[in-house]
Amino acid sequence: MKILYQIGIIFSICWVSQIVEKLLPFDFPASVIGMVLLFVLLSCKVLKVEHIREKSDFLLANMAFFFVPAGVSIINYFDVLKSTAWKLLFICLITTILTFAATAGSIKLTLKLMRKKKGGEWNG
Predict the structure, then answer these.
(1) Mean pLDDT within 61-78
(2) Which pTM does this prediction carry?
(3) Which of 55-64's residues contact partners 24+ apart within 8 Å by CB, and which partners?
C-alpha cells in the first residue's frame, strides 16, 4: 500500500505540472515544471523524502529502461541520420572535449578556492 501512496504522490505532481503547462502563456516542458514543483515541495518540507523514497529509488535504478523507446524511435530517422553522420560525430567529439575541459576547469577552480579559504595556497 505504501508503494501505491508514493506512486500517487509522484503522478499527482506530474498531473499538476501538466495543468500548469497548459495554463502558461508560453511553452515550457511539464517535466521541468514537475521537477521544480517537487523541489519546492521538498524544500518547504510540505513533502518529506520518506514519502517518495522507495518509488524514486526504483525509478532511478531503472532509468535506462525509460530511454529504450527514444532509442528505438531513432531507427525511424536512420536515413536522415545517415546523411549527416560525420557532422553528428564531429559535434559529439567537440562537445565531449568541451565538457571534459569545463569539468576539469571547474574542479580545479573549486579546489583552488577551497584551499584558499582554508589558508593554504595551491599552485595547480
Answers:
(1) 84
(2) 0.58
(3) 55/3, 55/6, 55/7, 55/9, 55/10, 56/6, 56/10, 59/10
